[in-house]
């Protein structure tokens, strides 16, 4: 499973969104909307995954995921209409669920259920901490993006090293890097979300970023702690 985070794509959006607060929702409603969108996205992905659970994916699945999900993120980021942003969000969560199904099939149901619960609890705790942290962590953006690039390169190196007679770095190392990195993204994205205009469109946009953070965190935790199925 490869990593995909939209946080860098949202930086220019924040610059525009913090200017005008005339259409702001109450803070509680804004947070509630984000929570509903995130939860809804996770539920939709889980439902789609249940349909693709027993399918045998090919490399075309992942290509299809990127072809649909990346434009989905861009549509959400660029649009100022929350319904259009929601459509872009759907373009992310549906293919994410499609590629998730065959992947979780590799693990026992009990371990998938346990890791999913752990991911939700950890994500919620980190998200609350990011929302309540009194200072902006916008300066983290560059470091997180560079770390993400290194993580992606590290993942692909696992496939290339053996071809050149080199031993790949232990996979668990990269999984732990991913856990730390996407935990940092959750804190960063939630902290930034609380500094944007409290609009319904921004609630959708931030839900996309946080959904991707949680999705990637779940994959890493499952890889580290999940029990492989004997099927």
The gist of it:
This protein has about 230 residues and is mostly helical. The protein is built from 8 helices and no strands.
Secondary structure layout plus pairing:
Blueprint: H1 11-17, H2 27-52, H3 59-78, H4 82-104, H5 109-132, H6 140-160, H7 171-193, H8 200-225
Helix pairs in contact: 2-4, 2-8, 3-4, 4-8, 5-7, 5-8, 6-7, 7-8
Q: Which runs of at least 5 residues are low in confidence (pLDDT < 50)?
A: 12-19
- Give the domain tally: 1
Average residue-wise pLDDT: 86
Shape field: globular
In what range is the share of β-strand residues? Answer: under 5%
Give the topology string: H per helix, E per strand. HHHHHHHH
Distance between the termini: 20 Å
Proportion of helical residues: over 70%
Structural class: mainly alpha
Instruction: Count every beta strand, where a strand is a DSSP E run of 2 or more residues.
Output: 0
The major β-sheet equals: none
Rg over C-alpha atoms, rounded to the nearest angstrom = 18 Å
Q: How many alpha or pi helices?
A: 8
Explain what you see.
The chain has helices at residues 11-17, 27-52, 59-78, 82-104, 109-132, 140-160, 171-193, 200-225. The protein is mainly α and 231 residues long. α5 (109-132) packs across α8.
Task: Name some characteristics of this structure.
8 helices, 231 residues, mainly alpha, single chain
